[in-house]
Design goal:
globular; 9-stranded mixed beta sheet; 13 helices; TIM Barrel; alpha/beta; amino-acid biosynthesis; 21 strands; Ala_racemase/Decarboxylase_C; pyridoxal phosphate binding; EC 4.1.1.20; single chain
Amino acid sequence: MDHFDYRRGAMHVEQVPLAEIADAVGTPVYVYSTATLTRHVGVFRAALDKLKDPLVAFAVKANPNAAVLATLAGLGLGADVVSGGELLRALAAGIPANRIVFSGVGKTEEEMRLALDKGIYQFNLESQPEAEMLSQVALSMGRIAPVAYRINPDVDAGTHAKISTGKSENKFGIPYADAVAAYDRAAQLAGLDVQGVAVHIGSQLTDLAPLEAAFEKVGALIEVLRDHGHVIRTADLGGGLGVPYDPSQPVPPSPADYGAMVTRVTADWDVRLLFEPGRVIVGNAGALVSRVVRVKQGATQPFVIVDAAMNDLLRPSLYDAWHNIRAVKATEKRVTASVVGPVCESGDTFATNRDMEEVEPGDLVAFMTAGAYGATMANTYNSRALTPEVLVSGGKWAVVRARSPIETLIAGDSIPDWVKA
């Protein structure tokens, strides 16, 4: 559920007309709903209400906007980060360090020092060389690093290949078969407190079966590790729960279904459970609003050319992702068209042969379910400014990231003296 709906024929976000924001800020623009964020956090936490003190650590990569993170911090969420930059963003937004988990395969010494200095809750290690590096960094600082190993369970999540992370050919984690040896070695490294196990098999999962299979393997591994003398106190079950992008496709499992499965599978683990939801919290809370530049008749169908492009919303080009595209001003007229942006790439296509509401030049359209992996993946290709972001709460709204003038982008370059000469 989200808080984008039509009132008197015009799409609103909560109590604010999208057209009001578009006219004031310009397009394209990302718009987020506080009420939707609040609802989604409540639903997810309610799904885990039978668990003892779970840590819900929002996946910052899904949406790192400071206002969004501050909203989630106020709702009690922690953070799952994958870079030093994300760690600093989370801290700046008010998320306490003792609710932050650091994941990712490429942590540098500098990032490890930063995280140790701030006192984060857990490092999710992905290789033995990483464990050895963290040990040395921790020793040099006189600190103890709380760690878990991320295990690759070789479970196919059944999702898009580019967002699958739990198969043996993926770069993430250590092979399940090597886990005991890895823990035995980590236990011998000074400066490390080996406290947990972590797993994450992919994103946008639409079936609980792969998750349950992975969790069953984690449970079995915890027993084996304890038999080998390791004290396992935490289990990070990752994120990945899908959201409904395409209404013609089956609805993904609900957080309640997910929570019931987790509660059942982990009943005798005797650990603190950690979760890394991202998309399921922010996906439906955001929309990308764009204006139609023109409609061009092609050989077989019209092209609706909008002022948003692949640099603003990369998912369709990168993942062949599907986003519902709605007219901001309601109409009953329908058309089959392709929706494309102005970037000089054939991949700058949002939809092909889409049955959609008929729109004309100057009309506004909204790309729905764009709150996750939208603005965070935006770039300046074709020398286009980064997309601004707006947060709405009831009848109030504010720009929470302004559109930087293109002159600012140009000013970031420098011309060497020999070129000027």
